[in-house]
Design brief:
Helices cover 29% and strands 0% of the residues. It is mainly α. The chain contains three helices and no strands. It has a domain of 36 residues.
Length: 83
């Protein structure tokens, strides 16, 4: 719906969203990529996002914090010197 609102001149707006996506991309073999490229080039960010099947799965103990921002990753805990 966001893509339809921001690109009123593209596609047939009477179609269902997936059908609109295909019509709005024209002859492109990759309609999602095409419209995302248009959106990113205009500074709006991507319209469509898909995660891989493994996204969101945690393979570690629940409760352990994992930062996705590499600049804020905590330093490794200090090793205790048993002297």
């Amino acid at each position: 719906m966001r893509a339809k609102a921001l690109l009123p001149q593209r596609g047939d707006h009477s179609l269902l969203p997936w059908q609109w996506l295909i019509s709005a991309a024209g002859t492109s073999a990759r309609p999602v990529y095409e419209l995302n490229q248009i959106s990113v080039s205009r500074g709006w960010g991507a319209f469509f996002c898909a995660l891989s099947p493994a996204a969101g799965r945690r393979f570690e103990r629940v409760g352990k914090a994992v930062s996705h921002n590499t600049g804020s990753v905590a330093a490794a805990p200090r090793v205790i010197d048993s002297g």
